[in-house]
Amino acid sequence: MDLFDLSGRTAIITGGNRGLGLAMARGLAKAGANVAIWARNEARNAAARTELAALGKGEAITLTCDIAAEEDIAAAMAATLSALGRVDICFANAGISGAGTAIADITTEGWDHTMAINTRGAALVYKHVTRHMITRAQDGDAGGKLIATSSGQSIMGVNRSSDYAASKAALNGLTRAASFELARHQITANALLFGYYETDITAKADPRFGEWMQKRIPLRRPGDHAGLEGLAVFFASSHSDYITGQCLPVDGGLCIS
């Protein structure tokens, strides 16, 4: 018996055409889930779809979607339901690194843009996904999984990252509120507070930052993308049904160092 078979289940992953999101999508596809990637870059979407389609028996679709625009979210949700019939799992993964300004240099535009993507975007994705999940529950088909990509910066301080840290702390709050409000429909909500992973975003940082981080992480290495596959499958599966409202650091011990 395969304890983590996701056949017949459908998962949305925003920003899932690269980095952490694509790593998690690989695990879901290998477990048999149908996977819908919502992301902005059409070329990366196409490459992700080709890769995922070759990994499992489920379907893989990609939809061009900017989660800063609610009309894009609504259209992507409608297209996902049309193509795949239902949504059981939603990974609110899309995010940006923030404006990178010191607190004394915060701008309204920079702050609002970070919040629009990292916090409001996730909330609006949840709005449209949970409407579908609640309707299913009212029809006798209860259950759903909401998993947010948060950050260790939501509970730790980093220079020139106040907007990003605040946006992810707000995402943690959204997670806890959603878990409480939606429990009656057997919908769980959790957040994964990722530490230092090598991604396109970290590649743009000063190399000294990566060196410093690895010295500070108790396990003395960045996170491995392959390990995210099983993590995603666990939180998407029935084996995490009794876990909700949690903000779990996934950081090699960084938050306790």
From TrEMBL:
One of the record's GO molecular function terms: quinone binding
GO biological process: fatty acid biosynthetic process
Top-level taxon of the source organism: Bacteria
Classification via SMART domains: PKS_KR
Entry keyword set: Oxidoreductase
Domain Ketoreductase: 9-190
UniProt record similarity statement: Belongs to the short-chain dehydrogenases/reductases (SDR) family.
Protein name as catalogued: NAD(P)-dependent dehydrogenase, short-chain alcohol dehydrogenase family
Organism: Erythrobacter sanguineus
